[in-house]
Amino acid sequence: MEKIVFMFPGVGSQYVGMGKGFYDNFKVFKETVDEAGDVLRLDLTKLCFQDANKEELSRLENAQLTVLTLSVGIFRVYMKEIGIKPDCCMGHSLGEYSALCCSGVIRFADALELVRQRGSIIGEVSSSLEGTMMWVVNLDRGKVEAICNDVCEAGKEVYISAYDAPTQTSMSGHTDAVMTAAKQMENAGAIVYPLKMSGPFHSPLMEEASQRMRSTLRQYTYEDPLYPVLANRNAQLYQGKESVIDNLSLQLISPIRWKDSLDYLAAQGVTTAIEMGPKDVLKFLVKKNSDEIQPFTMDNEADLNKLKEKYLVREDEYLGLIGKCLGVAVSTKNRNHDNDVYEREVVKPYMRVAALYEQWETGGKSPTVNQVEDALKTLRSILLAKKVPEQEQQLRFNKILGSRIIRPEAVGS
């Protein structure tokens, strides 16, 4: 069986025009953006859609709020249009708030307020520090760790702030320490370049921000997750709502263990990752980490249509699908020796669907979605009447549908 993880991006994924197609064409997305605007008393459409506001959008506070809002809106579009639930959720830095919101742990309005306060806190704390962040590419994480440790032992503070891939990390620390480490890493063959964000994020230098965020988090209430959520700080699942305060406050002083999270998911049999948010940064990181997990994005309508092709049965396949139902009904071994029950609950339902199938086939007509769902339900009843074990029934339906569904409302039927 296919297992799916939803991934939610962090700051850096924002761009002018993001979400415009969804806003114009999907009511649930527009409602999400408008709801966020009401909560924040901020016109998010101007921030997201107008070129004149590009610089304003890139400000840390605004970037966080817009990426959170669009990620939640995109998730809601997916659930409305496709609806197959995730086996797990996770987010990159800020994206952990989006993951928790979409998993039902944090109310959307509360997530917006928390992220606004988070942006204010880390902005104030980082402004008092001479700190920065840099990406390090093309150098093994062990070598990056060793260089950071050497610089720290020399009395300067620099730390790995994200383990994104085997040869892609980020580091945070005091600016002079980061620059010293960067020179050594370049000499070792790394490609090093600064992040647009300023501040030593996801490092021990943010201890004050972590403590202030802990106090803020205590002012809100949380629910247990509808879907399991992986924490950035330790690549482990949240242990109920009680773990929210620890995970989100310690996230600010801990490196993001993205590679470890993907390794965990692959070991759990996850086969598909869907990035719920603007751009495709996380899709790229999946490709750098795993050959076992196939990544997709949900940045625009074209991405949504690709997912529909993957998960929704097309109308021109309806007749063939009903034919498969009839074939399974005939070929599956009967374990029920009550002739009256067999006649009533196997033969008659089968003949009814078979007669309709012949009419559609000879008349060149296609069955409706309701008729396809009826055929699937009839097959389920026939298999039950034949006393087919549940696991075998599931195998039969997997053979017919694979990982696809008829329509979102039919999920789980």
Describe this entry's structure for a reader.
This protein is of the alpha/beta class and 413 residues long. The chain folds into 3 domains: 4-126 and 204-311, Malonyl-Coenzyme A Acyl Carrier Protein, domain 2 (3-Layer(aba) Sandwich), CATH 3.40.366; 130-194, Malonyl-CoA ACP transacylase, ACP-binding (Alpha-Beta Plaits, 2-Layer Sandwich), CATH 3.30.70; 315-410, no CATH class. The chain has helices spanning 20-25, 27-40, 44-49, 54-58, 60-81, 95-102, 108-127, 141-153, 175-187, 207-217, 244-250, 258-267, 281-289, 301-311, 318-331, 339-363, 369-385, 390-401; strands at residues 4-8, 88-91, 131-137, 158-165, 168-174, 191-194, 229-230, 272-275, 294-297. A 5-stranded parallel beta sheet has the order 7-2-1-8-9, sandwiched between helices. It has a 4-stranded antiparallel beta sheet with strand order 4-5-3-6. The longest helix has 25 residues, at 339-363. The radius of gyration is 26 Å and the shape is elongated. The protein starts with a strand and ends in a 12-residue tail after the last helix. The model has no long low-confidence stretch (mean pLDDT 95).
- Counted by DSSP, the helix tally is 18
Summed over residues and divided by their number, the pLDDT gives a mean of 95
Query: What is the share of helical residues?
Result: 40-55%
Number of domains: 3
Distance between the termini: 16 Å
With strands numbered from the N-terminus, the spatial order across the biggest sheet is: 7-2-1-8-9
What top-tier CATH class of the largest domain fits best? Alpha Beta
CATH superfamily of the largest domain: Malonyl-Coenzyme A Acyl Carrier Protein, domain 2
> Within the CATH hierarchy, at the fold level, what is the topology of the largest domain?
Malonyl-Coenzyme A Acyl Carrier Protein, domain 2
How many strand segments?
9
The parts where pLDDT drops under 50 for at least 5 residues are: none
> What about the largest sheet?
5 strands, parallel
Class based on secondary structure composition and strand pairing:
alpha/beta
The ordered string of helix (H) and strand (E) elements is EHHHHHEHHEHEEHEHEHHEHEHHHHH
- Our estimate of the beta-strand percent is 5-15%
Rg on CA atoms, Å? 26 Å
